[in-house]
């Protein structure tokens, strides 16, 4: 790993990339999302303060455990004067993210368990399959995927045009998901 002399207080994007292990394109993306910042030279080249190294390390560690970039950005924005995250900051933030991660782990466990069921069935019915139509709140009362609920009770956004209504006679063939 290239060493950066202590007297250098600003890094080029190439130096930041080499030192952090993040691709130049990733650093540009992080900057566009407000996770890191740079100043521009007279020749319009980016220069990053040395503390960008720790911010990039913080972002990458949070990403590895599945924290969305918007959540990471919000966490970094809470730091006073845009300072570098400390060990204490990481401990505090990781504690708040723990419940979110626990919920995702629980969801993945349910998906894993239902995946085995669907491999045996093979129907992938949009009306009944727990993989194609997870957490369908109205599935017990109506047929078809009327409303999918995300974790926390939020309604999932509709995507694409609504399918035409199907006939109400929906007899299940043996082996189909229920």
Structure commentary:
The chain is mainly alpha-helical. It is built from 5 helices and 3 strands. The chain has a 3-stranded antiparallel sheet with strand order 1-3-2. Residues 158-178 have low confidence and may be disordered.
Tags for this model:
single chain, 178 residues, mainly alpha, 3-stranded antiparallel β-sheet, 5 helices, 3 strands, 42% helix
The amount of helix comes to 40-55%
How far is the first residue's CA from the last residue's CA? 55 Å
Which structural class should the secondary elements be placed in? Answer: mainly alpha
Biggest sheet strand line-up: 1-3-2
Please trace the helix and strand order, writing H or E for each element: EHHEEHHH
Q: Categorize the overall geometry.
A: elongated
Low-confidence runs (pLDDT<50, min 5 residues)? 158-178
Radius of gyration: 24 Å
Largest sheet: 3 strands, antiparallel
What amount of the residues lies in strands?
A: under 5%
Give the integer mean of the pLDDT values: 75
Q: How would you classify the quaternary structure?
A: single chain
Number of helices: 5
Strand segment tally: 3
Secondary-structure map:
Blueprint: E1 10-11, H1 13-20, H2 24-32, E2 39-40, E3 46-49, H3 52-64, H4 69-77, H5 87-121
Q: What is the compact description of this entry?
A:
The protein has 178 residues and is mainly alpha-helical. Helix content is 42%, strand content 4%. The model is unreliable at 158-178 (pLDDT under 50).
């Amino acid at each position: 790993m290239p060493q950066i002399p202590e007297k250098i207080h600003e890094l080029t994007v190439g130096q930041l990339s080499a030192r952090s292990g993040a691709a130049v394109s990733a650093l540009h993306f992080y900057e566009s999302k407000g996770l890191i910042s740079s100043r521009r030279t007279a020749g319009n080249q980016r220069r990053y303060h040395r503390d960008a190294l720790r911010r990039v390390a913080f972002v990458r560690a949070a990403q590895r455990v599945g924290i969305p970039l918007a959540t990471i950005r919000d966490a970094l924005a809470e730091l006073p004067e845009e300072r570098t995250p400390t060990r204490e900051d990481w401990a505090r933030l990781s504690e708040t993210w723990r419940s979110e991660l626990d919920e995702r782990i629980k969801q993945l466990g349910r998906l894993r368990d239902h995946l085995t069921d669907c491999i045996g069935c093979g129907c992938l019915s949009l009306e009944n399959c727990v993989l194609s139509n997870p957490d369908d709140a109205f599935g017990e009362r109506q047929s078809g995927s009327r409303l999918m609920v995300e974790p926390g009770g939020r309604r999932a956004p509709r995507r694409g045009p609504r399918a035409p209504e199907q006939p109400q006679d929906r007899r299940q063939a043996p082996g189909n998901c229920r």
